Task: inverse folding
């Protein structure tokens, strides 16, 4: 276990498993030969990537569904309004034709 994130990885450390404190938890790092010369802290991430992305995707999906429903409702209202306007026009035409 190490709390020193600035420790440089050397050749004699290759093959070891180190627990490095990331600020919240201990991250287990398997030291490989490609890591020699780098600092341990570079491999113990302090921020968890992708956290909350599922929630964001879920919110976006719900928002899209709401928008689709709203659009469908608006179209339905437009159809109803158009049909009412047509009915009124037909009634006016019938009244005019009966007066002649």
Result:
């Amino acid at each position: 276990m190490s709390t020193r994130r600035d420790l440089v990885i050397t050749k004699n450390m290759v093959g070891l498993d180190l627990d490095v404190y990331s600020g919240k938890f201990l991250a287990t790092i398997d030291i490989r030969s490609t890591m020699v010369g780098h600092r341990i802290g570079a491999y113990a991430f302090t921020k968890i990537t992708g956290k909350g992305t599922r929630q964001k995707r879920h919110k976006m999906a719900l928002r899209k569904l709401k928008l689709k429903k709203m659009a469908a409702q608006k179209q339905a209202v437009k159809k109803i309004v158009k049909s009412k306007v047509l009915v009124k026009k037909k009634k006016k035409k019938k009244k005019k034709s009966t007066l002649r």
Q: What stands out?
A: The helical segments are 53-99. Residues 70 and 76 are 10 Å apart (CA to CA). The mean pLDDT is 81.
